Amino acid sequence: MTRYAMVIDKRRCIGCQSCTVACRTWNNLPMDIIYNPVVSEGVQGKWPNVHQTFTPLLCNHCQNPPCVICCPCKATFQDDDGIVWVDPNKCMGCKFCVQNCPYGARDVSAAPEEGFARKCTFCKDRVRTAELPPDQRPEGWKPEDALPYCVNTCHQKARIFGDLDDPDSEVSKLVNGNTTTRLFTELGTDPQVYYIEENGGSVK
Amino acid sequence: MSTKYKDKSVDIHAPGVEVKKSCCYFCHQNCGVLAYVKDGKVIKIEGDPNHPTNQGGLCCRGNIALQHLDHPGRINHPLKRAGEKGEGKWEQIPWDQAISEIADKLNAIKQESGAEAVAAAAGTLRTDDWSRRRFLNLFGTPNGFHNALLCWIPTFMMETAIGGWSPFETDLGAAKVVILWGFNPGASAMPGMRGYTDLKKAGMKIIVIDPRFSETAAKADLWLPVRPGSDSALALGMLNVIINEGLYDQSFVENWCVGFDELSEHIQQYSPEWAGEQTWLDPEQIREAARMYANNKPGCIQWGCTADQMGKASASGMQAREIMRAICGNLDCPGGDLMPGPSQDYITDEELEGNDFLPEEQKAKQIGSAKFKLTAWPGYSIIAKNCKEVWGKAPTAEWMCEAHGPSVFKAILTGDPYQVRALICSATNPINSYGDSKMTLEAIKKVEFLVVCEYWMTPTALYADYVMPIAGALERPVIHNNYGVTDSMICAERAIQPLYERHPDFNFWRDLSIATGAPADQWPWQELEDAFYYVTYPLNQKGYAHSSYNEFVQKFRMYYPPLHYYKYANGFATPSRRVELKSSILEELGYPSLPTWVGPAENEVDDPEVAKQYPLVLTTGGGFMPFHHSEEFNIQSLRFIKHEPFFTINPETAAKLGIANGDWCWIETRRGRIRQRANVEPSVDPRVIYAQRGWWYPERDPKAASSADQPFGCLESNVNVLTSVDDEHCDPIGGSWANRGLLCKVYKATVTDTFDTRFSIPGSSAEPGVTVKPSEQKLAFEPIPYDPKPSFEVPEGLTWDKDLKKAVYEPMNLVYDENSGWLYDPKTSVYYDLQTKYAYDPTNEVLVDEKGQQYDMTTKQPVEKGGK
User: Fold this and answer.
1) With 90 as the cut, is the pLDDT of residue A204 above it?
2) Phi and psi for A27 in degrees, rounded to 5?
3) Which residues of chain A have a CB within 8 Å of the CB of B637?
4) Given an 8 Å threshold on Cβ–Cβ distance, is A21 in contact with B64?
5) pLDDT band at residue A203, thresholds of 50, 70 and 90?
6) Of B47, B75, B209, B559, most Cβ neighbours within 10 A?
7) Which residue from B54, B186, B197 is facing A203, i.e. has the nearest CB?
8) A138 lies within 8 A of chain B by CB
9) Alpha-carbon torsion B822, B826, B827, B829, what sign?
């Protein structure tokens, strides 16, 4: 089995928001939609003893996604590899899922002809090219083409993507070798984005 | 619901899609970009995973290349002014017609006033600079300039004067420590930041020197938050520790340095305690930094922009840092700071510039070269001679040997030393990117003939006689080789031919040069690829077989000569062939030969009077995501991240001044004031203000009444209104003007506040550069006349106080509140009637005179006590 997940190494993130911009341009999103904002509480502490951390956000592709069960027209799905996605042709834009997602990862654009719920798909069209047998991959395919675009564009390599069920993958090693946190685990959503915390402002 | 929804995703692997090895062009890192081209159109771009610089990464700006390429705001055809200057009325004309009309006008000016009356301004390293220099040399004017003096060039020239070539390539892989001095790669050099993060994980120590808790400082082992503008004092203090504690490399000093004894005697005055006072650091922090650098050998000192932006306080720091590297034995050794030298294997920029075309008498007319000699013909000539003797080639003259930009703008306004009549701006919007914007704006408005080569209708382009459309990212081939002073290069090809009538600026300079009468055989290259093939052709000898430039890019993409260290075996390229700790070149030019402290342009020690009125220290010029200099404010996909200008203020100071997070405030220096919003955050010292650079408002209508004097709000939030280009504030050696370490004050803005476009120009071109001796540290200081006029009619009997900017009633020390029409006492906050000067009693709603007699509010007649 394959279980896609992302690890975000907050020790490396510098809050440049390149992933935010890159995702929008790569996926041709309307102006009012952001899949992966980077948030921060700003610089904390008392001068000069201060620190700052950045938290890149995106859809957590939960194991128990609350956005799937609430959909009245069955327009949102979770595939076997864990990826949660919306079929724009089935969605009526009622925003139930937008309200039900505790991570604010979904929204409906106000732009004309874009009136359906949308969210990060882990760039599923890209990542699933890795599962194709080599001879069926498109001409000119390279391993980077099988990563979400935000992972590629990150200069700091703070985003690491892969298969959690593969013990040799980098995400498996990171999740098993570091203390990681996840967002709102108390809700029982079982989110699949893992954060490696800053640990006092230095890269260990 | 929307069953019609069409998938908008683009398949980069579709049949017929070509992959072009292009590069990003939105800062000068030039990260590798793969452009997917189908039917002559770029359908997608992404970071090139095999590029050595970015390894697939792209920042915010890199990702918007496609929005930039065909943005509705782009200038696509040559425009000729059809109305008054600045009116914004244009006639679209063909490229050739524009070139021939511009050439005729330039030739007429040359005939009447000499070639030197034509000047050329430019911005960052994203232009075909050698071709501009070739044009200027063939035309005969020495007055080309860039923002060079704020960005590395004075450092390069200083380091080359002392050590024979700037050791700017940090060999980080083997380094144990790196000092990031005034450098924030976390916001301005993202590919570099990844390297530092990786190496730190591997054990390298990082020392960050930055007055702000920057993205990079957050990852440092040691962070030194210095007073803005005092970096040189820190460098001198560290040098003092290294020498006095014997932490230097004795054998290197003995074998390869001259002037060590004079240096160690001279440096005694700069103890860590002294440096601590200047920099606001604990002397122990300075000792710790010096020991961390000197004891972790090999180590690197990475250059940062700050080094060149502190005005007159800049030079001593550059000198001290170069000396520090040298005496610690970190020059050109594994893990140290490498001196690449000019390329021996391909044609350098300098060889393309044609500097021999420029007659000697024209070189002497270079504006500013009598004042700021190191970075102009006087200094460059000496350095180039030494470099040619040792390396065989000289540094690039474009950038390293230029007119002093602000002095050219002053010459437009004052005719001193002579009238500059024509200005060609390419890739720059000087109103926002050069210092003292009010003065620069006036020069742009006044110059007789202005040509602007641009992507956008900038505030500068609005005043142009001709605006020429320039090809941008993806539309031009690019060779990245650090201003032509390194021995390696990374190349990129065009993804597509330029859209519309856009051309790379190479074509502009080539066409203009031939149209102004230069022989066509001086420009044997039709297109940039031809010229670049001329550059790469010698590499055929090195096993890089190629028959065109594009083939070179597709097959090899880059050229790195085999890395070798200790290239100074035959001596350094200085007059003594040694590292000159006591510089003979500086001495020859009339400057102090040893690093000598000069305080920042404005500081509380030298100018206590100014500091009383402007109690905070301002630092500007730092890069911040997602913008670059004054660019990209018109790209919606970037502007949504930061849509308004912010300055950073410590919560303690903000509370004292009554400023809340997000408040619009004025930041004021002696030159003027700008409006930005407050970011209240403990990331700066309570005494420091950090203001964002570059801001203008491309979304505004330049014809609106509020924009009349300053189109696109180009003075409103533009931090360069605050910076100083006065001769006395500029670095006398390299000419850098003062962006950092200025004195300012901050106060809340109200909606009715207005702007002021007046300015003054102290100093003259005839005055030679200030030669600073320790005894003359306190430079002459004349306050700039600033005489604000009241914005309302001053009532009779009241006088205008220009310091308070209020009307006052002097006999009783009352201040007039122009909004309510009442007088008030600022000490007691009691209001007084304007006519009768009776005090207002809010309890009884009556007026009271000094004897206690009450008067009616409206009739001003006495009333009985105890009731109306």
Assistant:
1) no
2) -95, 10
3) 21, 24-25, 31
4) yes
5) very low
6) B47
7) B197
8) yes
9) positive
Beta bridge partners of B222: B207
B27 to chain A, closest Cα gap in Å: 15
Give the domains, in start order, of chain A with CATH numbers. Answer: 4-196 (3.30.70.20)
Contacts of A51 in chain B (CB under 8 A): 218
Decide yes or no: CATH 3.30.479.10 for domain B18-58. Answer: no
Secondary structure letter of residue B506 according to DSSP: H
Question: Is the minimum CB–CB distance between A139 and chain B shorter than 8 Å?
Answer: yes
Of A21, A116, A156, the CB nearest to B637: A21
**Full-model pTM:** 0.87
- Separation CA B333–CA B320 (nearest Å): 19
Name the residue of chain A whose CA is nearest to B199's CA.
A203
Chain A's closest residue to B61, CA to CA, is A18
- How many contacts, defined by CB atoms under 8 Å, are there between A and B? 158
Least Cα separation, residue A186 to chain B (angstroms): 31
In 3D space, the residue among A61, A56, A58 whose CA is nearest the CA of residue A2 turns out to be: A61
Beta strands in B275-351 (DSSP E): 299-302, 337-338
B533 and B548 in contact (C-beta within 8 Å)? yes
In what helix (H) or strand (E) does residue B353 lie, and over which residues does it extend?
Answer: helix B349-353
Q: Would the CB atoms of B59 and A202 count as touching at under 8 Å?
A: no
- The residues in A 5-64 lying below 8 A from B, measured between CB atoms, are 12, 14-18, 20-22, 24-28, 31, 42-48, 50-52
Of B13, B60, B218, the CB nearest to A51: B218
Which tens digit of pLDDT belongs to each residue from B239-290? 999 999 999 999 999 999 999 999 999 999 999 999 999 999 999 999 999 9
Segments of chain B assigned to CATH 2.40.40.20 = 608-763
Q: What is the pLDDT of residue B42?
A: 94
Q: Which residue has the tokens 């009136």?
A: A115
Which whole number is the average pLDDT over A98-119?
92
Complex ipTM: 0.93
Average pLDDT of the residues in B824-829? 83
B167-338 CATH fold = Dimethylsulfoxide Reductase; domain 2 (3.40.228)
Cβ distance B321 to B158 under 8 Å? no
CATH class of residue range B608-763: mainly beta
Answer yes or no: is pLDDT of B753 > 80: no
Name the pLDDT band for B774 (thresholds 50, 70, 90). very low
CATH 2.20.25.90 placement within chain B:
18-58
The dihedrals phi and psi of B293, each to the nearest 5 degrees, come to: -70, -50
**Where do you find CATH 3.40.50.740 in chain B?**
94-154+342-427+470-559
Domain boundaries B94-154+342-427+470-559, CATH class: alpha beta
pLDDT at B1 over 90: no
Q: pLDDT digit string (tens) for B687-734?
A: 999 999 999 999 888 877 666 688 888 988 999 999 999 888 999 999
Residue contact A156–B197, C-beta within 8 A = yes
Cα-trace Rg, chain A: 17
